[in-house]
C-alpha cells in the first residue's frame, strides 16, 4: 500500500524526512532543512517546490498557543442543527470569534468546532448562542498532541 501520494507520485525517504522536518519547524531555513535531510540548499529548495507544485504541501502556517493568547480552555463542540436551521448555524459558526476551526462533517452531527474560551462561564455563553439553532455535545480539551500521519 502506498502512503501519502499525489497522483502516481510516491514520496521517497527524503520527501518524507523533509515533511517531518517542516512539521517540526515550518520556519526553518532552506539551508537548515537541507542539512537535516542530507541535501544541498538548492536541492532542498527544488524538493520543496516539487512537493508544493504537486499539492503535497499546500502551505505553511502559524500554530497558535491558546494559553499564551489568554484562553484558559479549549473545547470541541459537536453541532447538530435543528430542522431547517443548517444555514443559520453555518453562518453563526463562521462569525463566532471563539471558533478557531470548524469542520463540516457527515454523520449525526453536521459540524465539529474547536473553541478557544476564557472560562467555563465563557463556554456557557458561547453555547447559549448556538442553543436556539442546534443541539450540541461539548468536550473540554485537556491536552493537545501534534502528530503526523503515517508517512
Automatic annotation (TrEMBL):
Any Pfam family hit: AsnC_trans_reg
Record keywords: DNA-binding, Transcription, Transcription regulation
GO cellular component: cytosol
Claim: DNA-binding is one of the keywords in the record: yes
Annotated HTH asnC-type domain residues: 11-72
InterPro entries: ArsR-like_HTH, AsnC-type_HTH_dom, Dimeric_a/b-barrel, Tscrpt_reg_AsnC-like, Tscrpt_reg_AsnC/Lrp_C, Tscrpt_reg_HTH_AsnC-type_CS, WH-like_DNA-bd_sf, WH_DNA-bd_sf
Annotated transmembrane regions: none
UniProt GO molecular function: sequence-specific DNA binding
A Gene Ontology biological process term: response to amino acid
PANTHER family: ASNC-FAMILY TRANSCRIPTIONAL REGULATORY PROTEIN (PTHR30154:SF51), LEUCINE-RESPONSIVE REGULATORY PROTEIN (PTHR30154)
Name of this chain's protein: Lrp/AsnC family transcriptional regulator
Organism: Pseudomonas veronii
